[in-house]
Amino acid sequence: MAFRKRNSERKQVSRPARIYGRDREFVCACTVLDISDTGARLTVEAKDTEAMPTLPSEFLLSFTFDEEALNEALSVVRKCHVVWEQDGKIGVQFPGRRPYVEN
After folding, report:
1. Which CATH number applies to 11-93?
2. Which of 4, 9, 56, 76 has the highest local Cβ count within 10 Å?
3. CA dihedral over 93, 94, 97, 101, signed as positive or negative
4. Is 30 left (phi over 0), alpha (psi -120 to 50) or beta?
5. Measured between alpha carbons, how far is 98 from 80 in angstroms, rounded to an integer?
């Protein structure tokens, strides 16, 4: 029997996003490969001339690419906690988020 760690179903999305430090400074661009109510799997690719960025253990993930990227009233922003890193992929948890339950 397989042990399942996730609390909610993940949906494949392949959507560009941006990572910001807790100080709200831009860290790097990323791609959200899949997402759920409680977390996501990301990939960060370095450009040919750059090294892979070092990600903080906690950061903000924004799905908006303009000046409103960190305005939570105008864009989707999630606080993230890195749970695992493997083969260029990063698993994050959205602290405080609970799985959606239909009644």
Report:
1. 2.40.10.220
2. 56
3. negative
4. beta
5. 14
Q: Residue 61: exposed, middle, or buried by beta-carbon count in 10 A (0-12, 13-18, 19+)?
A: buried
Q: What does the alpha-carbon distance between residue 32 and residue 53 come to, in Å, rounded to a whole number? A: 16
Residue ranges with strand state E in 36-76: 39-43, 58-62
Domain layout of the chain by residue ranges: 11-93
d(CA 58, CA 74): 22
Token look-up 């993930």 returns: 61
- What pLDDT is stored for residue 96 in this prediction? 82
Nearest to 21 by CA among 46, 55, 67: 55
The one-letter amino acid code at 101 reads: V
pLDDT tens, residue by residue, 22-79: 888 888 889 999 999 899 999 987 665 565 677 899 999 998 777 666 676 677 889 9
Which two three-digit tokens encode residue 82? 């890195």
